[in-house]
Write a structure and sequence with these properties.
The chain is an alpha/beta fold. It is built from 17 helices and 20 strands. It has helices at 18-31, 44-49, 52-55, 77-82, 84-90, 125-137, 156-163, 223-239, 288-300, 315-318, 344-357, 376-380, 382-394, 422-426, 469-473, 479-492, 494-497, and strands at 2-3, 58-61, 94-97, 141-146, 175-176, 197-200, 205-208, 243-246, 306-309, 331-332, 365-367, 398-402, 500-507, 510-517, 520-527, 533-537, 543-549, 558-560, 562-565, 570-575. The strands form four sheets. It has an eight-stranded parallel β-sheet. The protein has a six-stranded antiparallel β-sheet with strand order 13-14-15-20-17-18. It binds alpha-D-glucopyranose.
């Protein structure tokens, strides 16, 4: 491929030789990623201007599957504490734990029966405090999962609420009389199958549950509910947690008139049954932003905390969650990559659309996998998973890494008796089950990959003897070492964390973009195809040095006039200051 127009513009850049030196100094650093890679002094300005969560790399831990310490086959808090040095060396700055609170575990912790304690399968409050202190000592922030939309049906609030129509907590949940024929009040559907209404024979009314019937939705129109959850937040913030990822934040409010959701004319069998309706009256209601602004005010009572929202909406709706004058969540999770078509044009268009939609001052973010969707290696294949890592860690915006993606964890195929996910149990056969993305971390080649001495609650992915942390650490070209180099680069170079983003080209299988900051420029070149490709620049004044190569064998190679990319290869190239650039 020849790139002319874009590349023929010359930038007025002063210093001729300095960057060559600077980039090799950076490469030295990257070979020892365990060393502190805080921004260099000369760039302190950028570091001071941005909040920690703008520069941070977030790492999501699914606690059941990270590290078991008491041999019950389920991961726990002391297990996570044991693995903090691993996370420190990986270089991430913040960890987010999926729910660890007391729960009947019907939806694996997203059904909470007590918001201010720890489930015994994960440990105790003391274990939590120890983990938090240890994490902070290592320079790691700790984020918790706040699940305010619903509780477990075993929560004392719901037990009280369902006990009688006159109980003071009755209105804490969403109760409604039956329809005239005795059926559910309206057509609202549960995302976990069937009607979203469950009849309660004792009090003769239905209650609403967007997910399992064991997960009744709280009534966020009731100020007491709002206050109660605010106090839950304060409980953890005062203990020292650095913020929350808020579960299904865009669904907190439902229509007060309980109008039927419209039928979705585009639904076809094979899609989740709840998609038969458009959730017009059960999600993304305009008033939800007031409720979120209140959550944000609670966060603002404490210094330097962050609020992240789980929001599955098209980009133009998603960005509304920054809130009017940025009074909403700091980071509305951007899940666009989870369902992106994996080709250069589609990816470039998606980044452009997102960048263009961001409100002034709104900070971007990117998510590659999570506990609800197939892993990136399963979506794009193991070779392309490296490029996905490169993309995630070089785009503008806070990246979130899902545990195990850094070793290219694949999805385990489960036999029917191994299925644990209630979603798959309720709606089998559509491929929406989530167990495959939640299997235990592979630490080493020992029994159960070093995760537990007992049979894990979910099976290990089949390749665990070969693909594990211990093996990959020793292989310079492993995906784990690629992650480490990319993370170290992002942490060392403000141009990668806070620099601007500029699209360069999306042609055929090639995706190229530029990051720029204070005279530093980094070109990211990804070959998403199975054939080698060459990018020729109009001028051989295009010069630089490879900082990170996706296949792990070209770091520090000089680049001049052209870039040769092998199949599925990606390069992060630091441009010389005097180079002709796009
Ligand atoms: C969120 C969680 C998911 C859970 C659901 C209901 O989407 O990420 O795991 O099942 O909420 O709580």
């Amino acid at each position: 491929m020849r790139i002319d127009a874009h590349w023929s513009r010359t930038f007025d850049v002063p210093n001729l030789t300095r960057v060559g030196m600077q980039s090799s100094a950076i490469s030295d650093r990257l070979r020892a990623p365990q060393r502190d890679t805080a921004p260099a002094k000369g760039n302190a300005h950028a570091a001071i201007e941005s909040a920690w969560w703008q520069r941070a790399i977030i790492y999501q831990i699914y606690p059941r599957s990270f590290q078991d310490s008491n041999d019950d086959g389920i991961g726990d808090l002391p297990g996570i504490e044991r693995r903090l040095p691993y996370l420190k060396e990986l270089g991430v700055n913040a960890i987010w734990l999926s729910p660890i609170f007391p729960s009947p575990q019907r939806d694996f912790g997203y059904d909470i029966s007590n918001y201010t304690d720890i489930d015994p399968i994960f440990g105790t409050l003391r274990d939590f405090d120890r983990l938090l202190t240890a994490a902070h000592k290592q320079g790691l922030k700790l984020l918790l999962d706040l699940v305010p939309n619903h509780t477990s049906d075993q929560h004392s609030w719901f037990r009280a609420s369902r006990s009688s129509r006159s109980d003071p907590k009755r209105d804490w949940y969403i109760w409604h009389d039956p329809a005239p024929d005795g059926g559910p009040p309206n057509n609202w559907l549960s995302q976990f199958g069937g009607s979203a209404w469950e009849f309660d024979a004792v009090t003769g009314q239905y209650y609403y549950h967007a997910f399992l019937r064991e997960q009744p939705d709280l009534n966020w129109r009731n100020p007491s509910v709002r206050r109660a959850i605010h106090d839950v937040m304060r409980f953890w913030l005062a203990r020292g947690v650095d913020g929350f990822r808020v579960d299904v934040i865009w669904q907190l409010l439902k229509d007060q008139q309980f109008r039927n959701n419209p039928v979705n004319p585009h639904w076809t069998p094979g899609q989740p049954p709840s998609d038969q309706l458009i959730p017009l009256y059960t999600a993304d209601l305009p008033e939800v932003h007031d409720v979120i602004a209140e959550l944000r005010r609670v966060i603002n009572e404490f210094d330097e905390r962050v609020l992240i929202g789980e929001i599955y909406l098209p980009i133009e709706r998603l960005v509304a969650y920054y809130g009017r004058d940025l009074t909403g969540v700091h980071l509305p999770f951007n899940f666009a990559l989870l369902s992106a078509r994996w080709n250069a044009r589609a990816l470039a268009a998606l980044v452009d659309e997102y960048e263009a939609a961001l409100p002034a001052g709104g900070w971007p973010n990117w998510v590659l996998s999570n506990h609800d969707r197939p892993r990136v290696a399963a979506r794009v294949g193991t070779r392309q998973a490296r490029l996905a890592a490169m993309l995630l860690l070089t785009l503008r915006g806070t990246p979130t890494i899902y545990y195990g993606d850094e070793i290219g964890l694949s999805e385990a195929a489960l036999t029917p008796d191994q299925i644990r996910d209630p979603l798959e149990h309720n709606i089998p056969g559509l491929g929406i089950g989530r167990d495959g993305a939640r299997t235990p971390m592979h630490w080493d080649g020992s029994t159960n990959a070093g995760f537990s001495d007992r049979e894990p609650w979910l099976p290990l992915a089949p390749d665990h003897r070969a693909e594990n942390v211990a093996n990959q650490l020793h292989d310079e070209t492993s995906i784990l070492n690629l992650y480490r180099r990319l993370i170290a680069a992002r942490r060392a170079m403000p141009v990668l964390s806070v620099g601007s983003y500029r699209p360069v080209a999306a042609q055929g299988d090639l995706l190229l973009f530029l990051r720029e900051h204070a005279g530093d420029r980094v070109l990211v070149a990804l070959n998403l195809g199975d054939e080698a490709a060459t990018v020729e620049f109009a001028s051989d004044q295009f010069r630089g040095q490879i900082l990170v190569s996706a296949l792990g064998d070209r770091d520090e190679e000089p680049v001049r006039g052209r870039v040769d990319l092998r199949a599925s290869e990606g390069l992060v190239i630091v441009l010389a200051r005097d180079a002709t650039a796009p």
